Amino acid sequence: MNAIAKRKLLLSVSKPTRYLGTEWNSIHKEHRTTPIKFAWAFPDVYEVGMSHLGSKIMYHEMNRRQDTLVERVFAPWVDMEAKMRAEGLLLWALESWRPVREFDFLGFTLQYEMTFTNILNMLDLAGIPLTNEARGSEHPLIMAGGPCAFNPEPLAPFLDLVVLGEGEEIIHEILDLYSQWKLNEGKRGGRREFLRRAAGIPGVYVPSFYSVRYREDGRVAGTEPVLPGVPARVRKRLVADLEHLDYPVRPIVPFMDVVHDRVMTELFRGCTRGCRFCSAGMIYRPVRERSPERVLTLTREAIKGTGHNEVSLTSLSSSDYTQIGSVARRVTAGLAEEGVGISLPSLRVDSFSVDLAREVQRVRKAGLTFAPEAGTQPCGMPSTRGVTEEDILETARAAFSAGWDELKLYFMIGLPTETREDVEGIATLAREILKVWTAVGRRGRPHLVVSTSSFVPKPHTPFQWEPQLALSDLRERQGLLRHLLKDRRIEYNWHDPELSLLEAVFSRGDRRLAAVLLQAWQLGARFDSWTDQFRFDLWLQAFDQVGLDPSFYAHRQREKEEVFPWEHLDPGVSRRFLWQERERACRAELTPECRLGNCTGCAVCGNLKVEIRLAGEFGRTE
Known about the structure:
The protein is of the alpha/beta class and 622 residues long. The chain has 3 domains: 3-235, no CATH class; 240-364 and 592-622, Transcription Regulator spoIIAA; 367-512 and 548-570, 2-Layer Sandwich (Transcription Regulator spoIIAA), CATH 3.30.750. The protein has helices at 3-10, 46-49, 53-63, 78-87, 116-125, 170-184, 190-198, 280-283, 292-306, 324-335, 354-360, 389-401, 420-439, 471-484, 497-507, 513-523, 536-546, 550-554, 575-586, 604-608, and strands at 36-42, 68-74, 105-109, 141-145, 161-163, 204-205, 210-214, 220-225, 234-235, 263-266, 268-269, 288-289, 310-314, 341-343, 368-373, 406-413, 447-454, 490-494, 569-570. The strands form 6 sheets. Strands 2-1-3-4-5-6 form a 6-stranded mixed β-sheet, covered by helices on one side. A 4-stranded parallel β-sheet has the order 15-16-17-18, covered by helices on one side. α10 links the parallel β13 and β14 (341-343). α9 runs parallel beside α10 and α13 (420-439) runs parallel beside α14. The protein starts with a helix and ends in a 14-residue tail after the last helix.
């Protein structure tokens, strides 16, 4: 596209800086002299994708190679899509404005099931055939990775290869293989031959090399490879040593506000809390922490390399980092005078420290956010956290006494053990927190934000066997809370239950759902996670036209021995352990954290030949 056409197009759409590609620290390489071209695709808008740490890491990691260039591509917003289709323009990568169909790879990160229609839309906008069987040697290889890659079956016909687990090491093995194949055989070997060889890399899953058998009642009977040498079970990859892993300290600085517009320093990976509904807590095991010295070094370099005035010490549960107090104090001491603020994005009620919060928010004070998950005990037992009402009230008391006047609490409704009393308990707890405000002598009006999401059963979790509540039940619980939380001091937010239903369908779906996905997209579904774009009626129409029932996937209790569509994809956690945890949840029993020295028998360390590593093991810390 020439400069005049580009300028004309950008002047006619909202937020044109989404499409520039010339931001500070963006990497521009010469296409003519760089053998491998990789388009990194995030199937949502720029503001969301540019806030994703994994994308920053992989952009940096692949661009370190001399033989590879990586450029970004995001889902164009609806106004840009309309302009592109009207002008006959193909989807392009930001850095070079070249069509992504000219690249060797187009890699999607799968963060959320409700972005799946955007993937089809982006392929279509790029002029790339949607299905893997329709693509030829002139088309890029379509890759995918991320948390939803642990059950990519609804996308199986549309993907060429899938990466399970962390990508920093496996991506080099894939690119090395492609370089060798391209150099020695070129297109003579055919894309199928490359995929056959790629399937031999541990952690690589090629969906077209597997067939699925179904029972008469619609359940999966089994998934088997159709080619010799293809593994029957694909196990995830992870990086055992985070300490010496290269990390992006000069990430791209957007020209516009994005969701998380700050430096992000990763403290550790994994989580041993073992919340029974949580996919991340299972698929990212085991815990591997960086040393405090490494965290401090990365933070200083990233502030210098970007000019940001805020840093987020990030992980699945940042306050669980074993040296969090020391690191927070040392980071604050080194950066506060420069006006750099610190945030901890994921605080636990049971590990909260007012002193810690006061320390990290010395420069600028924001509201505090916690996730109790359930309104009462033992409904909270699905989380394994053991957080009591007293814990939450004590946290509120400490926060209000220290000067905070805004608290955000996230709960989940529809958990397998939930009763009406548990739902009412959310409102009761909120009112008790308001009483704490008065009890500590505060004047004025506090701001309490209560948000509820609906339970979505996820693959590879103890609750993968459980049904989701029917839509009518979810609406009833949300209506009850709207009534009980009518108070000027309380703001109540909730997730669309219809969206949660579709998330439940696709999170545990099989390959037959690909036809529903395709039909919904053809009917106009896209940006389904955006309230103003979501059309539930289109999805119902798609299910009806294909002849599948969403309740079969979302609302059906699974039997103990049922074969799941993702059975051949292995996160390292044993199925026996997951069932055991389900049973413990039903008995309202807690499971101790393994990072504290209590092995729970999940088998991940033995299966993956890796051990938990905590910050204190690196040597003396302050």
